[in-house]
Amino acid sequence: MFESLIRLMVVYMSISSIKNGKFKTAYYKTNHLIKSIKKLEGVA
Fold first, then answer.
1. Which candidate, 32, 30, 34, places its Cα nearest to that of 12?
2. What predicted TM-score, i.e. pTM, was given to this entire model?
3. Would you tell me how many other CB atoms lie within 10 Å of the CB of residue 33?
4. Please, how many CA atoms are within 13 Å of residue 43, restricted to the half-sphere of its CB?
5. Is there a contact between 10 and 33 (Cβ–Cβ < 8 Å)?
6. What is the dihedral of CA 15, 33, 9, 2, to 10 degrees?
7. Residues in contact with 33: Cβ distance below 8 Å, sequence separation at least 6, in sequence order
């Protein structure tokens, strides 16, 4: 449940960033989120 919610957020953020023409920003934000999620999963 929690994981799918984060995935939806990441997809939404990526799509909205791409619409604004911020490809690099979207990439770095998504990358940062994935790293944060992996850290959380490691702690959990």
1. 30
2. 0.41
3. 16
4. 6
5. yes
6. 160
7. 6, 9, 10, 13
